[in-house]
Amino acid sequence: MELWSIHNAKALIALDIRTMDDSPLAAAEINLHFPSIKLAQVRGSAQVIERNERFIRRHPMDVIGVFFALAGEAFFYYPGGFETLRPGQAVIYDADRPFMRGFHRGVEEMVLTIPREEYLALSGGRPLTKPVVVDFHDAGPSNRHMLALARLVREALATGTAGGAPAAAPLDARAVEASSLELLRLLVAGRGAGTPLGYLASARCFIEEHLADPDLCPARVADAVGISERHLTRVFAEEAEPPGAYVLRRRLERARSLLADEGERTTPIAAVAARCGFSSQAYFARVFKARFGMTPLAARRGGADTLILPD
């Protein structure tokens, strides 16, 4: 318990931690630190964490925390209120305001912290006086910007740590931090306060979720992230790629990944095309070859006998 408390104080947030019974604590935490934000993935047995007024005076943090619940229910007490948090919900709260959180079945969550000063810059100077609970669950109605932020945090933790093994691609720390901050701005400052980077991250998240939908189009993406289609086009212009072209590229990249997957070896190519949002197998084959210089069948075989065209 002492080691767990010391680690959290150094790596994330100083907490008064105790178990709910006499069982020993089992816990693990993965941390990523950026210049402005900190990310963590936390797993542990049943426990209660608290920061009361006396503890806060001894251990001020000056940070805002975003806690993404991934499994199990948790209670959240704060002055004047109470929340029950379910998997797929995130709570935003000022760590220097008293609170108590309990995990009677264990904790599994992701955490993002940001200095209060930077949070105030994002929120237009509005302080966080009580917790804000936002849904981000993939399978149900959710706040699109919070869902995008949760996906970004999850992918950063997976890429930045890779379970101790070399990551498949290097972590772009600057891009992760910038996108996280702009998604937070969209969440806390409200409609019309977003920047192109924030809307771009949110739009890309929506596209990834709906690649299998053949009706996915720029108009649907724009509506999902709360901007006009013209504004969406300007957002993607920052990346020199129209939204429609981005959707097609991501569909083709996903298809190529599926075709190279040994576990998908017996999946018909028509089914692969459908899973990537192509309603016509002939069109899929044509655009796939135009992109990669080989047919989908050749890609499944490894493409050794084909000419690979440059991007």
Automatic annotation (TrEMBL):
SMART domains: HTH_ARAC (SM00342)
Pfam assignment, any one: HTH_18
Record PROSITE patterns: HTH_ARAC_FAMILY_1, HTH_ARAC_FAMILY_2
Keywords: DNA-binding, Transcription, Transcription regulation
Domain HTH araC/xylS-type: 201-302
Domain of life: Bacteria
Signal peptide boundaries: none
Coiled-coil features, chain-numbered ranges: none
Name under which the protein is recorded: Helix-turn-helix domain-containing protein
Species name: Sinomonas flava
